[in-house]
Write a structure and sequence with these properties.
This protein is an alpha+beta fold and 446 residues long. It has a single domain, classed as Cytochrome p450 (Orthogonal Bundle), CATH 1.10.630. Helix content is 55%, strand content 10%. A five-stranded mixed sheet has the order 1-2-10-7-3, sandwiched between helices. The protein has a three-stranded antiparallel sheet with strand order 4-14-11. A two-stranded antiparallel ribbon has the order 5-6. A hairpin with a 2-residue loop joins strand 8 and strand 9. The radius of gyration is 22 Å and the shape is globular. The termini are far apart. The N terminus is likely disordered.
Length: 446
Amino acid sequence: MHFARTAPPARRTLDRRVKQVVRWGTSHALPRTAVALGARRGDLQGRLVAQMSNGTSAELFTLLDEIRGKGPVFLSKLGAVVASHEAVRETLANPDVEAGRFVPPDSVLARIGAWSEIDVLHPVRPPSLLAVEPPQHTRYRKLVTKVFSARAVAQLKDRTQQIADELVAAIPAGEPGDLIASYCALLPVTVICEILGVPPGERHRVLELGEAAAPSLDLGLPWREFRRVESALATFDRWLTGHLDRLRAQPGDDLLSQLVTAQEDGAGLTDQEVKSTAGLVLAAGFETTVNLLGNGIALLAADPAQRALLRERPDLWDNAVNEILRYDPPVLLTGRMTVRRTTIAGAGVPAGRLVSVALAGANRDPDVFPRPHVFDVTRDNARDHLSFGAGRHYCLGASLARMEGAIGLRTLFERFPAVELRPGARRRPTRILRGYGTLPAVARTR
């Protein structure tokens, strides 16, 4: 009798573990092996993925130049790569190329993946805006855009400035410290938590969960990292469920409270869609803005001439943010799948191809940006970068990121005109997101 009572939970535990192993195998172990083999054999797509985690900036952008030189679409044994401005823009707007797929929809791997899937919040799985297509995407985005509008972002500007002023005032002049921990992470997490209606006492938890879940965008995670990320996502899912229940009982004037009640043609978002949007806002509005601020500080700290230009012409700060986004983007690459045979920038691409869309490559295209490997805050077409994507999946938080970047960087460098970088700066180990995990520096007033 004792065995009969305990066997079902034991079997459920075994089933969960088996499914987790299968998820890791199909989403990470197989791609990791394929990429490693491809890189060893000289495959450019394999080399690109390897460089994104292990190479230097110079090596990465040299490789992107090489791929771009092969034509608008480079077909490899692993899939395809687009790295020119024209091809990236066309790919992201092409209805035959869909987000949220990493294997052909009718393949054995797709069926295995569907069997092993679990109902936990994930930034690149449905119903995330990043992973759904029309008509679902059209309805979903229309509702979300009503809340996260340009007007709503403009209303956050004064509060963002106040937060930046308070954080800068707390940085001790002339003393070494890590600007990621003391500034770059705290500014966006505070703004995002206010957008999401998160009480001040809970913000440290959001910061920890966001950092733990950041690698979820990557393919090829080691088993231990994969389990840690899934655990962080499940913890965040549970916390967010409780948070939404509190907002429904006591709504505030935050944007998430508005999203809970938003409707279009008499219909609103499902609970899972609201949770997915909140998770995406956290990931896109926090993680990428940390990278934008850190990358910008590193670039400007190393370039006194560009800092001098910004002191003389503070009207250039908005353009400087766009140039930072172009030159050292917070997101290097995104993935798509061709669901039908299609044409991109005049080149034919078969159905069922995984397309690596190199945003960083488009941003260094010499046909669009003269002297593309030069960082120049006066660049007249810096805003033409594709760091926020293009087409139907254009970043919902682009206005917020630009605003936070301009306020955050200007406030820091006006208070500390000289920021001296110290040894020990470390890039984050993530492949898709590009930024600093630590940025040791001394902030000086002169």
